[in-house]
Design brief:
EC 2.7.11.1; alpha+beta; Phosphorylase Kinase, domain 1; 6-stranded mixed sheet; ATP binding; nucleotide-binding; Plant_Ser_Thr_Prot_Kinase; 3 domains; two-stranded antiparallel ribbon; 432 residues; non-specific serine/threonine protein kinase
C-alpha cells in the first residue's frame, strides 16, 4: 500500500541524509505479500546508507498506509495546539488531542487522534521520530498503537496516532485521582502487553523495544493495552549473533542490569523490563521512589526476594486491591516476575512463554474477600442494658462505649458481592 502524500510535504526532505544517486528505471516484479514477518523491513540504517529512492519510498514500507499531514492541517485538528487539548508531556515532547474530520482526506474516517510534537533539540530527536515512523509504519498488531500518519514540514516533526481514551497505564496505576484497577483487569493488561512484545521478538528480524514501561502502555476504553513510543526500538540480532551492541538508553529502574553494564542488547532485556512492570501491577508502586528508604527505592531489586514467599507476597500486594484478587493468580504472576528479573539472562523466560503463563490466569475465579460480615448491634444506652441483664464488668462497658464512639458503619451488616466480582471479571476479560 502506498503512503498518501500531500503536495506541500516531501518525505525525503525529512531524512537529512545524503540523497542517493538516481538509478536507471527498470520494471520491478511485485513480490507476493504474505505477512510482515516474511518481508524484509526497512530500517534506519538502510536509509542512512542511501539505499532507497525518494520516489519509491511509499512502496518500501511493507503494509503501511500512512497519511502525510501538513502543519496547517494539524493546527486545525488540535485547535492550534491549544492548552485545552494537551494530553500530557513525555520525553520527546507534548501530546495533544485532536479530531480528524471525515472530509479531511478521502478514505480517512472521522476519529479522535493523539498528535505528538517532537522536541528537536539535538539530532537524537529527529532520529527517534524517524525510527517511530519506520517501525510503526510497517508493523501492525492488535497490541501496538496504530500510527495514522506524520508531518515533516520545515523544522516541524509530528506523529499522529489513534487516540487511546484511558491514557497510559502509569496514570491509571499511579495518578492522583485514579480509580483502583481490579486484579482481573491488571492480568488482562499484562497479557496484552506481553503479546505485543512477543510479536516484536518473533519477527523474522526481531525488534527489541528497549523502553518497556508503564507510561508507554496505552489503554483503550475497555482496558485493551497497546505499546506506544517506538523511538528507542532497535533491530535485534540475526542469525548466529547473540546480541547487538549499542549505546545504553532506556529508563532508570526498568533497564536490564547486563545491558547497563555492557551495552549488549538482547530480547531478554525487554523481558527484564516486563518483570518490573509486573511488580508494579502487583504492588501498585512506582519502580523508582526516592521518598522511600534507600533499600526500597528501586522496586525490582527490593521486591524480588519477596516474590517467592506467599506469606511475604500478601504483605506487599497493592492495598488498593482491598483483598479482591485471585490468590493463585497473584502467586503465579509473582513467580513469573521473579523469573523475568533474574540477573542471569538464560534463566529468564521468552515473551511467548510469558504469554502462555498469563493466558490461563485470566480465567481464575478464586477471588479472596468474598464474605458477609455482621457487625455487633449498636447499644444505644449501656446503662439500660446493664439494668436489664444485670451488672456488667466495668471494662466491658468501657469497651462498648468506646466502640460506639468510633464505629463508622451505620448499617449493622456489610456485604461483599461475589456476583459483582464475577461480572467484573467477565466484563474486563474481553476476547483478544
Amino acid at each position: 500500500m502506498r503512503i498518501k502524500k500531500s503536495s506541500n510535504s516531501s518525505w525525503w526532505n525529512c531524512f537529512k541524509g545524503q540523497e542517493p544517486e538516481p538509478e536507471p528505471e527498470t520494471e520491478k516484479k511485485a513480490e507476493p505479500f504474505t505477512s510482515l514477518n516474511s518481508v524484509k523491513r526497512i530500517s534506519y540504517t538502510d536509509l542512512s546508507s542511501s539505499m532507497l529512492l525518494s520516489e519509491d519510498i511509499s512502496n518500501s514500507l511493507p503494509g503501511s498506509n500512512l497519511y502525510v499531514f501538513t502543519l496547517a492541517e494539524l493546527k486545525v485538528i488540535t485547535q492550534t495546539f491549544s492548552s485545552s487539548s494537551l494530553l500530557g508531556k513525555g520525553g520527546f515532547g507534548p501530546v495533544h488531542k485532536g479530531f480528524i474530520d471525515d472530509k479531511l482526506r478521502p478514505g480517512l474516517k472521522a476519529q479522535p487522534v493523539a498528535v505528538k510534537l517532537l522536541n528537536l533539540e539535538g539530532a537524537q530527536g529527529h532520529k527517534e521520530w524517524l525510527t517511530e515512523v519506520l517501525f510503526l509504519g510497517q508493523l501492525r498488531h492488535p497490541h501496538l498503537v496504530k500510527l495514522i500518519g506524520y508531518c515533516c514540514e520545515d523544522e516541524h516533526r509530528m506523529l499522529v496516532y489513534e487516540y487511546m481514551p484511558r491514557g497510559s497505564l502509569e496514570n491509571q496505576l499511579f495518578g492522583r485521582f485514579s480509580v483502583p484497577i481490579p486484579w482481573s483487569t491488571r492480568v488482562k493488561i499484562a497479557l496484552a502487553a506481553a503479546k505485543g512484545l512477543a510479536f516484536l521478538h518473533e519477527m523474522k528480524t526481531p525488534v527489541i523495544y528497549r523502553d518497556f514501561k508503564t507510561s508507554n502502555i496505552l489503554l483503550d476504553t475497555d482496558y485493551t493495552a497497546k505499546l506506544s513510543d517506538f523511538g528507542l526500538a532497535k533491530d535485534g540480532p540475526e542469525g548466529e549473533d547473540t546480541h547487538v551492541s549499542t549505546r545504553v538508553m532506556g529508563t532508570h529502574g526498568y533497564t536490564a542490569p547486563e545491558y547497563l553494564m555492557t551495552g549488549r542488547l538482547t530480547a531478554s532485556s525487554d523481558v527484564y523490563s516486563f518483570g518490573v512492570v509486573l511488580v508494579e501491577l502487583l504492588m501498585g508502586r512506582k519502580t523508582m521512589d526516592e521518598s522511600r528508604p534507600n533499600r526500597k527505592q528501586n522496586l525490582a531489586e527490593w521486591a524480588r526476594p519477596l516474590l517467592k514467599s506467599a506469606r511475604k507476597l500478601n504483605r506487599i500486594l497493592d492495598p488498593r486491591l482491598e483483598g479482591q484478587y485471585s490468590e493463585t493468580g497473584t502467586q503465579k504472576v509473582a513467580e513469573l516476575a521473579y523469573q523475568c528479573l533474574s540477573h542471569r539472562q538464560k534463566e529468564r523466560p521468552t515473551m511467548s512463554m510469558i504469554v502462555d503463563t498469563l493466558e490461563p490466569l485470566t480465567n481464575f475465579n478464586d477471588m479472596l474477600g468474598t464474605f458477609v460480615y455482621t457487625a455487633p448491634t449498636v447499644v444505644e444506652n449501656p446503662k439500660k442494658e446493664m439494668h436489664k441483664h444485670g451488672q456488667k464488668d466495668n471494662n466491658e462497658v468501657h469497651h462498648h462505649q468506646h466502640d460506639r464512639r468510633h464505629r463508622r458503619t451505620k448499617s449493622p451488616t456489610v456485604h461483599s458481592e461475589p456476583g459483582l466480582n464475577r461480572n467484573l471479571s467477565t466484563r474486563t476479560n474481553l476476547p483478544e
